[in-house]
Batch of 3 targets.
Target 1
Amino acid sequence: MKGLFFIAVSIFISHATLGQGHLSNTLGLSADMLLASKNRSIADIVTDEFTSYSYYETGELKSVKPISDGKLEGELLSFYRDGSLRRREFFENGESIGGICFDIEGNVSTYEPFMTYAQLRGNLEVTAFVDMHHDFIFRTKKSLDINELKVVLKINQKGKMVGYEFLTKVDNGTRERLSYVLRQMTDWYPAIEEGVQVPMEYELTIR
């Protein structure tokens, strides 16, 4: 059976009006619970066990992302450069289950998804693109003996694939054929995090 698995997963959003702004709420998280974060500061979260921290180029903390098994899991916080809270959002298994955004003055602002993941340009999803070439990639007995093939694609902030890394040990022929297929891909729509284009890695599992 052939297929493709992405570390990055889609986020499904629904909106509820709150004052002049919006919050995202898919599992009935209370407005009080989300708004309780309004006066939180960086000092409140430095002892929490988060996995991933990102920073502005000038060194200020930008976001704290809880990641488990390559997916967002738990409470995500992001901050403006002055340390004031920009977003509080909750994730389960990579999907947003509720979030709220604030402007620089601490008022509730229009909710926008934290991240939009990179997508292949054109009419084909990456799964369909790879499936089109499955017989070419696995054309030899050695390649047919491979149960699972993992590759990480590295997409830069301009939507260009700038490299890839094989996580599975394969014979040279299979490696060369898959490398050829990957080079035939179109450019990507870049990933966007908090309104800024960012680089992203995809882990592909091909069976």
Target 2
Amino acid sequence: MGNFRINASAAPSFILTGFPGMEATEPWLFLPLLLFYSISIVGNTLILLIVKLEQSLHQPMYYFLSLLSVNDLGVSFSTLPTVLAALCFHARAITFNACLTQMFFIHLFSWTESGILLAMSFDRYVAICNPLRYATVLTSARIVAMGLGTVLRSFVLILVFPLLLQRLPFCHSQNILSHAYCLHVDMIKLACTDVSLNSHYGLSIVLLTFGLDFVLILLSYVLILRSVLAIAAREERVKTLNTCVSHISAVLIFYVPMVSVSIVHRFGAGLPHSVHILMSLLYLFVPPMLNPVIYSIKTKEIHRRLLKMLFRVKF
């Protein structure tokens, strides 16, 4: 095998994957994919604009929502070119460096989103369980520190991925990926050497970040639920829980597709490859597209401002 080994300096290229056996119908995916991207980009941009323009929304909850929207825009812009090119125009070749860059940003935004959702759960916990201390706990300086800490954590952890990948030799000049975009776990499968270091590091940071974040989010809602159940009036309990609906929805639409993709990836060897592609696209499209929709519908202040902006409705 030594004669076929190619390292990163020899510029191996990668081939993105579409839907096998459906090449003739793939161009028809252009309009729905463009629609999904448009909803994500326009929706998250509107959220940012509303929070910026509406003085009453200059609060911790909406600052974190703005971070989430910026992150979702990052996901859309980092994947838009290759997904549309691969699935709609059959332009599936991508260079090693381009694939490495896309992989870095996709994972960076995924890890950052998990941290933002954790910060938002902390915001809801303080607002409901310690409302009198809300302004003193979530100061502007602390919000900035939490935001920068989330991004820095993701950056440091994910920076190791390209460094580990650059040392790997690849067996072919053209390496076929199993998705329409580049992922670390996908790329290391194509290396013709031991990748246990990459695998162990990837698994470790998944457990230490996604796993820990989810446990802390779950714990915050256990404490929130205990506090809500102590409220005597039923109307007040419902009103309080309603302030958490948008965030709970955002948590579910982020973690459920991610866990589903992981399960299909690990245990779905017998499934058609098109199922793997479809699940990976759902993981990519669902959170950035649905987050602004959910917050626009379920968050009263955002909903009112959006109607006022689009239709000149007065309240």
Target 3
Amino acid sequence: MALSEFDIIYVNQKAIKGSALAKYLAYHSLMDPQPLLHDFPDEHIMVATEDNLPEDEAWRMWFNGASNVLGNDIDVILVLPKDQCFPFLAKLGFDCTNNMAEYEACTMGLMMASNHQVTKLKVFGDSTLVIYQLRGEWETRDAKLVPYHDLVKELIESFETITFHHVP
């Protein structure tokens, strides 16, 4: 009632039509367009490198696992001594805790490193709990994590040297 005193009338804002946007883009097109080249002669080759890696240098591995409403994902990056990267990503098909996802990521990374016949490895992770448990500084008390811890300890035996580092 108070608004009728001032003769205020609500007016909807006008929407930008799709045709107006198309006309704008047509009038402001690039003056010197570059054609897209779709020629990929070596599309079946992912990486082509020489295998002359120094024997004394350690590979590096970063791992991360996350469990939330959107899903359970694990990410691992293996890095050669020459800074060449191998990323691995996976979506877990089961419900788990964050710590379980971190252990899954670490396990996957260690398996990938073992498949690449890595002997020396530096492992980096952001999970304080997982890193300190794998270093042996903390006990693994959670019954859900004990099988993961045992599996990782088993995988560790296939490496000459392996170190775990916490990345805050």
